Amino acid sequence: xxxxxxxxxxxxxxxxxxxxxxxxxxxxxxxxxxxxxxxxxxxxxxxxxxxxxxxxxxxxxxxxxxxxxxxxxxxxxxxxxxxxxxxxxxxxxxxxxxxxxxxxxxxxxxxxxxxxxxxxxxxxxxxxxxxxxxxxxxxxxxxxxxxxxxxxxxxxxxxxxxxxxxxxxxxxxxxxxxxxxxxxxxxxxxxxxxxxxxxxxxxxxxxxxxxxxxxxxxxxxxxxxxxxxxxxxxxxxxxxxxxxxxxxxxxxxxxxxxxxxxxxxxxxxxxxxxxxxx
Length: 278
Known about the structure:
Helix content: 40-55%
Largest sheet: 5 strands, mixed
Strand order of the largest sheet: 2-1-3-4-5
Order of helices and strands: HHHEHEHEHHHHHHEEHH
Radius of gyration: 21 Å
């Protein structure tokens, strides 16, 4: 446990890591054992653990029980084959965040990408390709960036550097913590600070999606062809203890005004006329 805000700082730590550690501290959040899924009837797939195949025999048997139930759902297989989702979900890889179930959608209804910390990094070719495919081919109408409280990625960013790939991945999180250090240090508790970092990160990643060229181009095209700006971008955070999504306020309209010259963000005209909404 940590007793003082700067007890994590050491002389050999990089400046960014030292400031980030001093700001957010190491927070020991709840280890949630909640499972929001009803799941399938495991008794139908009561296969013992195999010393050769490990849990795979059991998982395959459970898949057979699951698939048998879903095949009886009218129209489901047709929807899955069509693959016409209206939503792109960018969420955290943590196991407590099952995208489809959280928003009450079935297979084929939401296009999903998950990574550690629900990060949107412009050098991530994987995510960039997913966003491009989602907006240009699947024509998704809404992009949801969803973080969650008790996020392990934020926890790692609040700890001393450990090296390796993970350390490089959370570097942007450390920068975010530094950028908001005054707001964070003003909060009364470690838990409040930890939760606020998660909210700030989720909103930051939603802005990163919004300013992507492919997203802006599709919004301009949809405004001209359909009279509405699509895709819309949303920031949400999931509360595991309540199993509920909480919308987060992101000032996309203010961003259009502040950074239009830098990113050539669309639509300048609609900002003047007020005809379209962000």
